[in-house]
Write a structure and sequence with these properties.
Elements (H helix, E strand, L loop, with lengths): L16 E4 H20 L9 E4 L5 E4 L2 H7 L5 H16 L4 H20 L4 H22 L1 E2 L6 H13 L7 H15 L1 E3 L2 E3 L5 E7 L7 E3 L2 E3 L11 E10 L19 H24 L4 E4 L5 H9 L3 E3 L4 H11 L3 E2 L11 E11 L2 E7 L7 E7 L2 H24 L1 E4 L3 H13 L7 H12 L1 H9 L4 H13 L5 E4 L5 E4 H4 L2 E3 H19 L3 E4 L28
Parallel strand pairs: 7-16, 10-11, 10-13, 11-12
Antiparallel strand pairs: 1-21, 2-3, 4-17, 5-6, 8-16, 9-15, 10-14, 14-15, 17-20, 18-19
Length: 553
């Protein structure tokens, strides 16, 4: 405020706009819920796909929440926070991105209704925090244990549940088996616990054939060809030498010149280079290797000598691929050829050059205990293989989660329904307005079974009544089986199972982001060169500030 006769004090930069109080909260909640509503219809096995068309005309067709939100050019700051939920969920668990965003949107919507009733944001936030902690306790209580080595059937069901909502569900048995076998191959066990690094699983897309012809290679595929035409293209019982070393005559670090006055000296110089290369190849032969995989170069003359010794060689292989081959074959990467010995060699049943599409690849397969594997995905078009890779990634992630954590929960909206009922009971422990916030959190949990039913064309009210009745009788695993006309069924018997980590992280991410947005009561937007956006509101001509939306259907 400025008193009479006082000079105004300018604090904010000229052009800066500010929205405070209820208006800021309302606009932030609106922007966040619009993002959630955008991808809501993709949830579950009966969810729909979205088509995204960028400014260059490139098309993306997917129902993967993280992929869609990553492509949408969101401008509104609150909407960006919701997008970050999906990214966090994808990084931490690899699945459940849509669920986390849907729950966050519902929490904000119900929180907004409480704000309309003049309940202070601080009380709502406290209620949400208490409910979130209670939800995590309940999830730990309901989680069931499994043995990753013995319970392969459960692992296949978990992979199948993740694949049900993907475009590749027609081949889910094959893709699920590939995912389970891949994770079990690369898992490292120590003191009864497992650690899985998905970077040790390489995925290749190839146009042609059919998705059901996709395969798991127990080894590594290198997108290189054999360096010399005279070399064998196929080696059985391969003994592999992995080199991070130039099989070439070493060049000096400084420029230098050699003056040769006699033609015989020239011949001697060339013969000396040839002898150096011959000695290098002799050192390789002495190790007993019949396959050489080099990260650096191999001289043409050295290639010729290797071919004469029936050695298959590949050069300029990426460092990441060399490391994968070392894990798959049990070999060691040699950095100095003079130190190479037989103990450094890796072993595989077969190394061969194979033509995939228009390109030659070297397959290192039939490894005895492969700690690195490769998956080849076939499809009629790039759209098919892209979506297949996203589906395989999700399946790999959920299997990894269960192998590492050894815990799982019922799917089909069962656990969210159970949480809703128990949190509703928990709300009665509060005697102030926080009780309403906890009840709102409980109601938000029902957004998952409600959305699953809506996307399947089922009346959500009837289904919710059935679900709540079943859970009131302590049937924790009762959920929606959308493959049987949306009937209520025991999810464990139906084989619809989710990893504990996915559900836990989805609720955690959703509640934290909702709390963060609810606490904002002042939005200050600095002036920029781009068209001005109303503070806390929508930009001109855009829906919620999502610049990528015009191409989505």
């Amino acid at each position: 405020m400025i008193g009479q006769g006082q000079v105004p004090v300018i604090i904010l930069k000229e052009g800066t706009e500010r929205t405070k109080g209820r208006d800021a909260q309302k606009n932030n909640i609106m922007a966040a819920t619009i993002v959630a509503d955008t991808i809501k219809s993709t949830l579950g096995p009966k969810g729909m796909d979205k088509m995204m068309v960028d400014s260059l005309g490139d098309i993306l067709i997917s129902n993967d929440g993280a992929t869609l939100l990553d492509e949408i050019d969101v401008q509104h700051p609150a909407a960006k926070m919701i997008v970050s939920i999906a990214k966090t969920q994808d990084q931490e668990t690899g699945d459940g991105t849509t669920s986390s965003v849907v729950v966050a949107g519902e929490l904000l919507k119900l929180g907004g209704e409480l704000l309309e009733k003049k309940i202070h944001a601080s009380l709502i936030v406290e209620g949400f925090k208490a409910a979130s902690l209670k939800a995590q306790e309940l999830l730990d209580k309901y989680a069931k244990k499994l043995n990753p080595i013995e319970d392969e059937k459960l692992l296949l069901q978990i992979a199948g549940t993740a694949l049900n909502s993907k475009a590749v569900h027609g081949a889910k048995e094959l893709i699920g088996k590939i995912a389970v076998d891949s994770v079990k191959s690369v898992a490292d066990e120590e003191d009864g616990t497992f650690k899985v690094d998905l970077d040790n699983i390489k995925i290749l897309q190839k146009i042609g054939k059919n998705l059901v012809q996709s395969e798991l290679v127990e080894g590594v595929i290198v997108d290189k060809e054999v360096v010399h035409t005279a070399m064998p293209k196929r080696v059985k019982d391969a003994k592999i030498l992995l080199l991070n070393y130039n099989v070439e005559v070493q060049k000096g670090e400084w420029d230098r010149e050699i003056r040769i006055n006699d033609p015989l000296e020239m011949k001697s110089f060339l013969d000396n280079e040839e002898q150096i290369l011959r000695d290098m190849v002799d050192q390789i032969v002495a190790t007993g290797a019949n396959v050489v995989i080099a990260q650096k170069g191999i001289d043409d003359m050295a290639q010729y000598f290797m071919a004469k010794n029936n050695i298959l060689a590949v050069r300029r292989v990426k460092k990441s691929d060399i490391e994968k081959i070392a894990r798959a074959t049990g070999g060691k990467i040699v950095t100095n050829l003079k130190d190479a010995k037989e103990d450094d060699l890796g072993y595989s049943g077969m190394v061969e050059e194979v033509k995939l599409g228009d390109d030659d690849h070297v397959f290192i397969r039939e490894c005895k205990n492969p700690k690195s594997v490769s998956i080849i995905l076939y499809g009629a078009t790039k759209y098919v293989t892209d979506e297949a890779e996203r589906a395989v990634h999700d399946a790999l992630c959920v299997v990894r989660n269960v192998v590492e954590d050894k815990t799982y929960l019922p799917g089909g909206g069962a656990i969210y329904t159970e949480l809703s009922l128990r949190l509703d009971e928990f709300a009665d422990e509060f005697k102030d307005k926080r009780q309403l916030a906890v009840k709102a959190f409980a109601d938000a949990m029902l957004s998952i079974p409600t959305t699953l039913a809506e996307n399947a064309g089922i009346d959500p009210l009837d289904i919710l009544n059935e679900l709540r009745s079943a859970h009131a009788e302590a049937n924790v695993a009762q959920g929606l089986n959308l493959f049987k006309d949306g009937k209520i069924q025991d999810m464990f018997k139906a084989g619809i199972i989710e990893p504990h980590r996915v559900v836990s992280q989805a609720i955690k991410s959703a509640s934290e982001s909702a709390i963060m947005i609810m606490r904002i009561d002042d939005v200050i937007v600095a002036k920029s060169d781009s068209p001005a956006m109303p503070p806390g509101g929508m930009p001109p001509g855009g829906m919620g500030g999502m610049g990528g939306m015009p191409g989505m259907m």
